[in-house]
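On clarity, I found the account of how folds are encoded harder to follow than it need be. What matters is that the chain and its backbone geometry are given together, residue for residue. The format is easy to grasp once an entry is in front of the reader. For illustration, here is how one protein appears when written out as sequence plus structure tokens.
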Amino acid sequence: MVNIYRLKTNRTLFSFGENIGAVPVGDSTLKDFQEKIVHEAGMTLREATCPEQIGDDDFLAFEDDLLFTKDFLLAVLNLLSTQNSSCEFYFSDNTFNRRFLLPFTNDKQWHWTYAFRYYKKKGPSFLKILIPQKIFENHIKLPSQIVPSGKYHVDQCAIWISKMASPFHLLYANLALNLGRAISIQNKIPPSLTQIFFPLNSRPYFWALRRLNKFGKRNKIHPSAILEGVELGDDVTIGANCVVRMSKLCSGTTLEDNVVINYSILGCNNFVSAGNFINLCMSYENVFLIHGPYQFSIFGKNVAVMAVINCDIRLDNQEITIPTNAGMINSRQHLLGIAYGHYAVVGAGNIIAPGRIVPNRLKLPPPDNILTTKFKQEVPL
């Protein structure tokens, strides 16, 4: 079997600033997740700074800001058995890739190609090899004035790779991993029966999701809470009438009464106030959220967001542009929220445009024109 190398780039997560290997992936870090995937594939991960430094006749190498699945790595290894030249790999256009693998260039010829390559020193120059994917299609029906097609896809796929070019790339890669937990059930149901017996939001669908529930220790869950496809860490508290669907709540997180968490990953020691709605979001540790809704957004560590209008759509229905380490990029998303930098505090009444990044440590008070600080002298009754 060929050796595999991780190429050190010294990159940090754009705007958020932490070393790229330290960004959260589920309840792990990108660095540890890469090592785990390589180990599960029966390989040993080696380190290098550039391909020219490596003396092997043939080897795999990837840049350290890439998040990929075990199935992606196995698919690459399978393809190598028939290759006699250096190659790089790409995906075709499909609804899963368009949703979760955000572009990191404005090049219109880009087709989901990444710096994950096979080097054969005595072979021809690089060939581009298509990696086939099996897509489990799922979509949420939305009005056409929100999504032109009327369908917001939340597909699942086991084979993919993504570059962490911004906090939004990190968000969507984590969402793909989280939703991918349902693949174990999808694989057991013939595709011809899925839409007949297990359509989205049907009773059998919710029954199947509950089969994925995993609970940590010392959880406090109100009997009226609905939990479907959840993973809970230790010491999680869930209040009355909460709905948590296909989401992961890490240790120490608290949901007050009447909170809805859909398709999201919340870090350790988060606090979500009563009546909140969190959809397709991700948070680091120690985040406080009050008076949402919050959708398609990522919250850095020790963030507090209070009654903010978290815009996630352009009224002209155009795709949303985002800042990345390669400049402003078209995300190809019609719905996209906000990235809140570490230690940011955003007060009530602020309206933040979609696809913006709130800088680290910014304290954004309520706008002056809506904040009352003085009162006229009270008139006696």
